[in-house]
């Protein structure tokens, strides 16, 4: 996808014969010093932090939203939005002095309809959007419900929005969705369409004096900031 170079070359066998050359493809990807958002969240949690600084959480949320805008404009469902699939670099800043954040891991991404997607994506063998694919804690109920033998309805781009909401919960609580629950319990909740429970940690953010959450006019500005689209959404992929 964007920001990645694909390099193909002919590789000769050990005997040097030109009759048995093999086309080898390699994908060169930029290295992110900071690693995944998941690792960063786990580090903060181990250090006793209760939540991300709200301003930083807003920057991360904005950039992932911009990445989804780009993907969805091409009718592509990511299907695995979670902190493990977000790369973050707090040391190397963008021109606007914000951290570098990118969405990655497109191995189960799929075009919504193969006839309408407009970008190159290797989707041969990837299950179509009527199969249960992804990580259950971040999975939308309609994705999980496709496991039912009598369920034949396809899901759409909206399943990424559910997963995005679960990612926001991670940012604000430093906890994975459905924290404390085992897989069977999570599956039962998904089957009935129930979202992760909101925790008391969200109240802590409000009462801790975070300036970004004080006053209705500031809240409105934050919402505008979050949903504002970048002029180059592909920067976040």
From TrEMBL:
In terms of Pfam families, this protein maps to: Pkinase (PF00069)
Gene3D superfamilies attached to this UniProt entry = Transferase(Phosphotransferase) domain 1
Using the record's annotation, list all stretches that form the Protein kinase domain: 1-237
Superkingdom of this protein's organism: Eukaryota
Q: Which SMART domains match?
A: S_TKc
- What Gene Ontology molecular-function terms does this entry list? ATP binding; protein serine/threonine kinase activity
> Which of UniProt's keywords are assigned here?
Kinase, Transferase
Any idea what this protein is called? Serine/threonine-protein kinase CLA4
């Amino acid at each position: 996808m964007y920001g990645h170079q694909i390099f193909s070359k002919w590789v000769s066998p050990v005997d040097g014969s030109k009759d048995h050359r093999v086309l080898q493809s390699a994908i060169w990807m930029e290295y992110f010093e900071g690693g995944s958002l998941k690792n960063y969240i786990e580090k903060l949690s181990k250090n006793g932090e209760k939540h991300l600084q709200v301003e930083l959480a807003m920057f991360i949320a904005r950039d992932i939203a911009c990445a989804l805008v780009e993907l969805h404009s091409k009718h592509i469902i990511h299907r695995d939005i979670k902190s493990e699939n977000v790369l973050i670099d707090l040391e190397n800043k963008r021109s606007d002095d914000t951290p570098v954040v990118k969405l990655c891991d497109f191995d189960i991404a799929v075009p919504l309809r193969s006839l309408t997607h407009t970008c190159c994506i290797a989707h041969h063998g990837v299950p179509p959007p009527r199969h249960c694919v992804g990580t259950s804690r971040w999975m939308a109920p309609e994705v999980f419900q496709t496991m039912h033998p009598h369920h034949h309805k396809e899901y759409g781009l909206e399943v990424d929005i559910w997963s995005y909401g679960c990612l926001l919960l991670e940012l604000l609580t430093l906890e994975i969705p459905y924290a404390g629950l085992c897989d069977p319990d999570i599956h039962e909740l998904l089957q009935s369409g129930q979202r992760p429970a909101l925790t008391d940690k969200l109240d802590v953010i409000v009462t801790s004096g975070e300036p970004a959450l004080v006053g209705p006019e500031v809240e409105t500005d934050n919402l505008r900031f979050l949903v504002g689209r970048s002029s180059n959404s592909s920067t976040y992929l």
